[in-house]
Automatic annotation (TrEMBL):
Signal recorded as keyword: yes
Protein's recorded name: VCBS repeat-containing protein
Lineage per the UniProt record: Bacteria, Pseudomonadati, Bacteroidota, Cytophagia, Cytophagales
PANTHER family: PROPROTEIN CONVERTASE P
Signal peptide: 1-18
Amino acid sequence: MKKLLFALIQLSTASLFAQSPVPNFKIQVIDNQISIGYGLAIGDVDGDQRKDILLADQKEIVWYRNGDWKRFVMATNLTTKDNVCIAARDIDGDGRVEVAVGAMWNPAETKDITQSGAVFYLIRPKDPTQLWEPVRLHHEITTHRMRWAKVDKNKYQLIVAPLHGLGNSNGEGVGVKLLAYDVPKNPKQAWPYHLIDSTLHITHNFEIWEDKDATRLLIGSKEGGKVISYQKGQWTPTQQWIGEGTGVGEVRRGYLPNKKPFVAAVSPWHGNQLVVLDTQTNTKKVLTTRLNQGHALTCEDFLGTGSSQIAVGWRNPNADKKVGVRLFVPKDANGENWEEFTLDESVMMACEDLQAADLDNDGDLDLIASGRSTLNVLVYWNQRILK
């Protein structure tokens, strides 16, 4: 009887994966005249209950209105050098996003803080299609990534990660200063900030986990993925590492069909590998080595299977002389085997950044990508089909 039950479970599981949807995405060009497309954010800018696309381009911060996708400039020439990142989230409950940006991108300069790094909060005008007012905040050298984090019931912080520490050379020296900014009632006043961590190097990106028990950060670095938790009003290291000793750039958490969490990562920094890291055993599975300058990553349930798939993008031509975005889908409950899918290649995408959001409110997640050398912003519209 037990053997029969086990066989039925195996048959049911195999049938489930055999019937899994085939990825089907169709490209729409949102903009084909950008400059670099450093960073994307998604959120409702104008309060119409539809998610818009925000972009930190080389010299301009812009947003594209959902529907007609008209482009509006929010800020221009914030510093003498490039913009580099953007964070957008509704943190006051009015249904419209608040926006912060990073600029003065000069990664080779790690000694002179006046020539490398900048952080701005943008104050929205009454008409969000007009220019927004920039407020300069404190910054560390080589500002690189930022996100809004909900750390308490009614409290948000702006988390900012530089790429290098002060005076670093070749990723060595003092650690990167990862900071958390409190939001004052008057954004033109000084923003209090707190040191989260200063032990890592080449902190290319991070992810925020807002779990029921605590808000956590997973920081991707030269040393691996470090987890830090917000508890009792402060950020505290958890002693948990994911992929310790494995240099990683992009990091995102996902869930296997068996509900076990994993972390997908581009390895090493700007690397050629997409890896899956076990959150408990520190082991890794290499899904592909065919990236070149892997630079964009997201883990979400695009196919409606109840588990996560991995979308990854790279920005330089690989051995096949291709750039693009690929989707990796687990083929079994434990994630032992994965299948790679090529998304719509009707338009080239040298992927600098990648976001997932349901832009058309049809119940599935679409992909939004910005292309560095291809100078474009694309939406990959998700259109599910069954085998």
